[in-house]
Amino acid sequence: MAFPQAHPERRARRVQLPPLVSASVHRDNGQRTRGKLHTVSTTGGVLQLASALARGDFVEIAFQTQAGMVQGLAEMLNPRKQPQDEVLQAFRFIALGDDDNRALRMTVAAATDRSSLKLDLLSPRKHL
Fold first, then answer.
1. Running DSSP on this structure, what letter comes out for residue 48?
2. Among 3.40.50.300, 2.40.10.220, 3.30.70.1520, 3.40.605.10, what is the CATH number of 21-119?
3. What is the C-alpha to C-alpha distance for residues 67 and 104, in angstroms, rounded to an integer?
């Protein structure tokens, strides 16, 4: 079992997974909400939801990545209303299973590598 902790001096790298990944949010009372994973890191992320969840709610978040399913316990943070009546709401992971943590780390690393490769391809090359 992994308990993701934010580093006190630097934020975990956030990545976007193209296209937006569907996520399922399960609340303690049995209600389920669907959303899209807007950004993700090894310590949390941001969900695009139809309506906000209460700040401080503990939920189970699940989403599929190329590295495998990621399912973990999370705490909902402050929501931000968007112009199209959607909500962007941050969350932080409280606990992840070992396999879920591994899949999440692999997903973030792969997205970071793709992003770096795109920047390298767009950079002007000096001729030697």
1. E
2. 2.40.10.220
3. 8
Distance CA 61, CA 9 (A): 26
pLDDT for 12:
66
Residue with tokens 């193209």: 18
Percent of the chain residues past pLDDT 70, beyond the cut: 78
CB distance 31 to 51 below 8 Å = no
d(CA 39, CA 80): 14
Question: Could you state, in order of their start, the residue ranges of all structural domains in the chain?
Answer: 21-119
pTM here is: 0.79
